[in-house]
Every structure is written in C-alpha cells, then in structure tokens.
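Thread: Modeling a multi-component assembly for a lab meeting

Hi all, long-time lurker, first post. My supervisor asked me to bring a structural picture of a complex we are working on to next week's group meeting, and I have zero experience with this. I have the sequence lines for every component (774 residues in total). Could someone generate the structure of the whole assembly? Inputs are pasted exactly as I received them:
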Amino acid sequence: MNGIDRRTFLGHAGVLGASLFLADGSRSLARADRPLNFSGWVFKPDTVKDYVNLYNQKFSGQVKYEAIPWAQYHPTMETRAFAGEVVDVMYCNHNNRERWFESGLIRALDDLPGLDELKKKMTPANLDSLKSKDGTKLLGLPYFTSLFVLMYNEPMLKDAGIAAPAKSWDELVEHCQKLRRDKISDTPFLPNWNASPSGTMPQLMTDCFSEGAQVFDAKNQLIVDQEPGAARAMERWQKVYKANLVNPEVLTKTSSTDTHRLMWTGRYAYHTNHSYYLKTIAGEPENSKLAPKKAKMTMYPGTGQTYMWTDSYVVNAKTKVLDDAWKFARFLGGNLAGDWYVQRQWCLISGLDNPYPEMYDHPEIVKSYDRWIDLKLLRQQYQKGKVIAAYKEPWYGEYDTKAVPIVHDMIRGSLTVPKALKDLVKLQKSLA
Amino acid sequence: MIAASGSRSTSGYAGVLRTLGGVGGHFGRVRAPLGAPHLTDASFAAFLVLPALLGILLVVGFPLLYSFWMSLAQVNLLRTTGPALEFFGIRLPLFKFVGIDNYASVFVDPLYWSSFWRTAYFVLAFVAETTVVGLGMALVLQESFPGRPLMRSLLLIPWSLSRVVVGLLWQGLLDGEFGALNGLLYNLGMIESYIAFFKQGFSALNVLVSVYMWNQAPFATLLFLAAMQSVPEDHYMAASVDGAGYWQRLWHVTLPAIRPVVFLVLVLATVNGFLMLDLIYVMTMGGPGHDTTTISWLGFQTAFAFFKFGTGTAILYTLTALCLALTFVYHRLLLRRFEADA
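Re: Modeling a multi-component assembly
Sure thing. I ran the full set together rather than chain by chain. Output:
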C-alpha cells in the first residue's frame, strides 16, 4: 500500500490552507463594499427590523441594523466615529444634525440623484428644518416630524357640564378650576413638563408661540425677555401649578412617553404633548381608559401655533458604499419603490407626523387615523406648526438641557417670571 | 529549559520547578538550562506576575491615564486631528491641551458646588442607612429561626436586580397617581390623599437614598454576615461567662471583630454613593429643578448631553479624589488601631 509521506502531507496541507485563506480573502474583498451598517435609537425596533428585512429581500441589500438606547444614542455614535467605525446610515435628531455635519461625520445629500423630487414633495417648514444652518445644503431625509397638540378628555368635560373644549388659555384654566372644585379631577391639566429634551423646553416654545411670542430672533439669539407673550405663558404655568391644577410629579417624569401614559388613566381633562401620543391614548383600548376616541384633539389655543421639528436619517461622510447607503436612505426617508413604504409604516403603526403631505391622501392612512384622531383637524394644526433654526447652533443642546431647571424653578415659584426670563437669556448668552 | 543550573535549593524558583516536575512528572522532566541567568526568588515572582501586571496596566492603568489627560484637554470626539498616540495602528488623539482650565471652570461653577453639597448629603445618608440596615439585617439573620435559609436567599433579590429595574419598580410603587404604596397607605387610613413623593426636591433626594439603600444594603448584610460567622464562639461564651448581655456582646465582641468588614462596607458604600447615576437617570433626571443633581449626574450630563468630554471628565475626577480621600479617612479612623492591635 502506498502511504502518504509526511513531507507530501505537509505540502498538500499547506497548499490547501493557502487556498482556503485566499478564497476567503477574495470572497471578503468581493463582499466588502456591500454590507451596509444602519443604526438608530430604540423606538419600535421590531418594526425597523421588519422593514430592513424587507429591503434586504426586495433590493438584495445587506443592511445590518442595530438599535441603541435613546439616551446613549448620539454619544455612542460619536464614540464609534472616534474609534474609526463607519455607520453608513444613521438616525440623527435635529439638535445634533448640524454639529455632525460641521464635524464631518455626515455628508450633505444635495449631489445625490432623486433628491430634488423628494424636496418638492416635502412641506417647506420640514425642508427648512433639514437644511444646514446657512440654508444651502440638505443634511438628512425625514424620519418623522413632531408637532405639539392639545388633547382633551371628552367624557370628563361632559360630566362637568362643559359643552366644548377650551378655545383660549383663560377658558382652559377656568375649566380646570371647575373640575378641581367639583372634585371631578384632582389635577385636571397635564402639560408635558417632563425634564427630557422632548418635554419642558419644546412645551415652553409651543406655549410662547401660541401667545404670539418669538423665542429666538433671526440671529438665533434668545429674546424671551423682550416678549410679553413669553411672560404670559410662564405666568400661566406658575398659576396652574400654584393652584394645584397640575400633577407636580410631571416635573420628574423622564420622558414624554411616561408623561402621556398618565393620560391613559382618564383622570386628566387636558393634555399637551406630541400629536402621535394621541394614538395610544385614544386608539389603544387595551392600555388607555380614553380609548376608543374618548380623548380628542382640539386646536391649540391662542394663535394656534405650536413647535415642530424634524428628525432624520443621515448618511455618513466616510461611507464606502455611498450608492447603497443613499438607496437605503431613500427607502427609509423617501419613496424608493414608489409606495412610501417606511414613511407609511410609521404613520400606520405609531401615528408619527409626516413631512410629505401626500401621505395623508393614502386611503389606508386616512382609515387608520380615523380610529384615533380627526385627521382634518390635525392637518390644520400641522399648517400652524412653527420651526426654529436655533437648534442648528452648537450651543443649543446645552442650552436646551440647562434651561429646564430654570423653568422648573419658575413653575414651582422659587424664581419669579422676570428673573427666570432673564436667567434664560443670560444662560443662552453665556453659551453662545 | 528554565531551571537554574546547579542549584540544589528547594526554596528557590528552581526548587519550585523541580517540585512541579516531580508532581507533574508526566508533563516532562524539567532540566536545568545551560547558561541560564540566575534569578532570585523576588525576580522570579516578578516574572510570574508580570503578564497579569501588564494586563492590568493595559485595561486599567492606560484608560485611567488617558481619561485624566482628557480632563486636561479640550475634547471634541468628532475633531481628532492634531497630535496623537499610535499603538499597533490604533490612533489615540491627544486633543488640545488646556492645562487646568477644565478644573478651574468646574470650581467656579455654582452648580458644581450645589451638586457637591447635595452629593455629600446623599453619600452621608446612603452610607449611614446602608451600614445600619445592613448590620441590622445581618444581626437578625445571624440568629436561628425557622425559615432562615429562605430569608438569606430572598435577601439577595434586591441586590441582584438591575438598577434600571429597581428604579422603574420604585417609580411605580411610589407614584403619586397610582403608586401601590400610596394605595396601601390610603386603604389603611394612614393618609388622606396620595403623597407626591417627587414633588419636593428634598423629598425626591431622600427617595433616591432609600431606594438605593434598598438595592445595596443586602450586599452589606452578606459581608457582615460572613464576618460574624468567622468570630470564634469562645469569645461570646467568655463574654457570657463575664455576664455580658446581648448589646454588650455586640458592642464589645462582634463589632470590634468585624471592624475590617465595617471598613470595607463603608468604603464600598461611599464609592457607590458617589458614583450613583442610573437611579437618577431613571427616576428624576436630576430634577425637579436641580434638586437631585449630584456630581455624577452633572459629570454625565456635561460629557454625554453637552458633549464636553474634557469638562465632564474633570468633574468626575473630582469624585475620584473625594473617594480616595474618604477611603484614607476611613482607614485612619477604623483600621489603623485594629492593625496596630493585630
């Protein structure tokens, strides 16, 4: 029997090993420009996984999705960029977009094919939101837009003999006083005064706008101390807190989500929050005592203007797979396959506001919204949505966070309204 | 070939190797090397611990040094051009050195000082509660009673829970709207209306202290219990013979005997108290106002919300300094005499 000698065995093994190594190496090279990394903060990650899978199947993509908790999301993405990792497509909130762009983490999208068509379809206010500070470049495609609305508990108002929801702030305060006096509700008013970035400060801007006040001037300087409407909004906040019309623990709620859940109990008459929260309040009987449709929205009092922002999908400036990244970004934030798939999903599943008006002509969406909101009224409120440009300033995030305790101290009465307004302006100037 | 040639010593490293060779002879014989350097026992010991030391240096020492450097620099993680350290292709930017500017800006910030005093209160209350409750529970569990093994097992549940879970759990229990505790007190007729535990800042801070104590005291109990079980029974018997009652035995026998563990519990509780962050994040976010903002929360916010990593690191290094200082004080107060006695 002819055996194999050791030298031959080692030789063959070496050739085999080298072949495997080279084969794998060449396969890796062939694959290298195809996988695409996609990261977002945690919000319905299973929904995101579903549409990522759909994209991978339908468009032969190799998208790898990773969800990161909201609180650590932006720092994590920056740390990863610091370590040299390239995440091709990412979520980015409005506060960080300009900073990421100026630091070279993300790229402008203007030179990419198909963008002009999307721009034409977008509401001008949302388009402005997504542009760079100088207004010349588009930095992201929309994930969703957020809009403050006023919601009310219809059965509670009826029990109190109140025929229609308040049309003015004075009327709203009167209703709340009556509800408390009649022992129908201990704390009838639930404003979104939580400490998170989506709480107190957007709520303050909303109420200032509804009072006809500007918050920032054209140069993005805070001017609330010169605006009587801002003082009126703050004085009202102090008044309702002092009169025990507001649950004091709303100040330590850690998110708008936590805050809106209080409305589920049916123990509050009025609630101000992002419009999409009405979907769970009025549309989820398994969670909320105010579903189906016992909670409703009404036009915001005063001027009716409320604060609106747009969060986005952005593309990494260092991506090696730009074509694929842009294609996927259009799938997410645009209309890649002609059916607005992802944009539509967010409307259907979560009621997130959308910057493309034609979305609301879709029969499926009309039918879905009809289960929890008066869509026509929502669109009217949307027309009154007001965007700012100050969040494109590098100091905005810090101002936005540090301002919260000042406003909370004002609400609780440990700061007077004029002092609080001055402190806010002083804070902004110290950071600018 | 590693054993020293010609050495007959069994106490030196060659002896160790010979012993190993003898014990584990089937691994092969240890032969003395030709011309191998002569190592002393100390050198040989150093040689053996060197890999571990290098590992510690790499995973503990280097990040410590680098983060300390960051506290002396103006850091923007997205702008990393400029001087850098390079190791095996990994580039570590050194950012712009600003000396003690970050520390200077921290020390003139009134918010830092208000957070400092709030932290001091938090740590003091937490250490006291944890030590007293931990010791009390250990004393109870030291006694014999039916169900003691079960109680000892249940004791660990709060400690084994994730702090985010603990925060959410207590947030639910204490809620002023639908909290179970409020419901219980109300149904027992002990309160006329639900209490808003988080309404006032001081109340919210004390809630944080108590919830953290609930989470951490079981570990202190475990340590105290282990220490108590190692106290010789003769000491108690002798004390009893001398007519000592329960409290006298506790004061004169138990506490002196477990003093090193008291020291350990105090150090751990102090460090944990200073660094506590997650409960604030889950339960109050530093509010209402700044009323539950501690130094760790301020440092976290500065670094991760304002992206000022240099200043944030400087804030957190002041905590490190405080921890070290207090550990030193505890050592002086508690252990020096004990070590001298020993």
